[in-house]
Amino acid sequence: MDEEKFLEQYENVKRNFSRRQIKEKFLEQYENGKRDFSGIDLRKCYFYDALLMDLNLSGANLENALIEGHIGNTNLSGANLKKASLRHTYFIGTNLSYANLSGANLICADFTNSDLTGANLSGANLDETKFIGSNLRNANLTDIKIPRDPIVHYSTRPDGKLIVNSSRGLDAKKLLSRYAAGERNFEKVILHGVDLSGAELRDVNLFCAHLSNCNLSNATLSGDWDAAKFINCDFRGARLRFCELNSASFIYVDMREATICADTTCTNFIEVNFQGAELRCSGESDSFFHNVTLKDGFFLQGSSNYPVRPNKNIEKLL
Fold first, then answer.
1. Measuring CA to CA, which of 1, 22, 133, 301 is 20 to 30 A from 210?
2. How far is CA 291 from CA 37, 46, 253, 307, in A?
3. Beta strand pairing status for 90-92 and 130-132?
4. 244 with 130, same domain?
5. Do 149 and 176 reside in the same domain of the chain?
6. Is residue 310 one of the residues assigned to a domain?
7. At 3, is the secondary structure helix, strand, or coil?
8. Based on the structure, what is the number of domains in the chain?
9. In 93-238, at which residue ranges do the beta strands (DSSP E only) sit?
10. Which domain holds residue 62?
11. Is residue 318 part of a domain?
């Protein structure tokens, strides 16, 4: 190896090491409670299985970064996400106004309840990207890549017009009417801002359904809900009886006083309030809990496979 190539490789290793140091310091500060990272430089940093909530990343530089996981209730306004890999990442309730997402990989990313006003998405890959309850007013969508259509419902287009998904989106009246007529298969349906409080929906197939901003308080529910997504929903006092919730996700959900009897194999509960709830769950594999409020009101911070208070006696021994 000649000297020039050696020096080039050395500089690359040094830069990569520096990127790792910056990422590790960022994550350490986040774990210690810091939330304001406006203007931070996280270029080319990799975040696998990320769970980053309630952050200020306005003006941050995330060019060519890789993020897979959940970014919720976060300010990314004016951030640089040019050519970032963000596939399968949840941006729930996130402010991405005037962010630069040009050339970004957004395959199957989820922007439910997010603000993308004036964002630059030119050249981005929007293969089955979800825009549900999203604001895309004045966004730049030139030269976007769409091998499969994005999933769009109740969102504002760049020209300010509202898009309603007529093929998959349902309101409460249509859903209840079809249910009363005997229909039970609502696979991949999209329900956004729907009021189903007190409803009885038994033996319903909601496989891969998307429910956001829905009121299901005091409802009686059962059926196959595998891989369904429940975002910012109200389940207070609801009765989930004999539900299949394999690989389902509950994100920013209120389950106070609910009764849940379900198969929760690989089910995700992120930012969920279980205060006063009765959980009778089982499954072949563990569920995942992150930042949840337990039945007795105790806030369990961080990630866990079991929604129980930490044993202080065990902690003393560790």
1. 301
2. 21, 23, 11, 10
3. unpaired
4. no
5. no
6. no
7. helix
8. 2
9. 130-132, 151-153, 155-156, 162-163, 190-192, 200-205, 210-212, 220-224, 229-231
10. 34-163
11. no
CATH of the domain at 290: 2.160.20.80
- Please check whether residues 141 and 242 belong to one and the same domain: no
Is position 229 within any domain? yes
Instruction: Give the length of the chain.
Output: 318
Examine the domain organization and report whether 183 and 281 are in the same domain.
yes
The answer to whether residues 76 and 104 belong to one domain is yes
**Which helix (DSSP H) or strand (DSSP E) does residue 301 occupy?**
strand 299-304
248, two tokens: 């389902």
Backbone phi, psi, residue 303, to 5°: -105, 145
Per-residue pLDDT tens, the chain, 318 aa: give them.
Answer: 555 553 354 344 345 547 888 899 999 999 999 999 999 999 999 999 999 999 999 999 999 999 999 999 999 999 999 999 999 999 999 999 999 999 999 999 999 999 999 999 999 999 999 999 999 999 999 999 999 999 999 999 999 999 999 899 999 999 999 999 999 999 999 999 999 999 999 999 999 999 999 999 999 999 999 999 999 999 999 999 989 999 999 999 999 999 999 999 999 999 999 999 999 888 888 899 999 999 999 999 999 988 888 765 434 333
Helices (H), the chain: 3-31, 172-180, 312-317
Question: What are the φ/ψ torsions at residue 271 (nearest 5 degrees)?
Answer: 55, 55
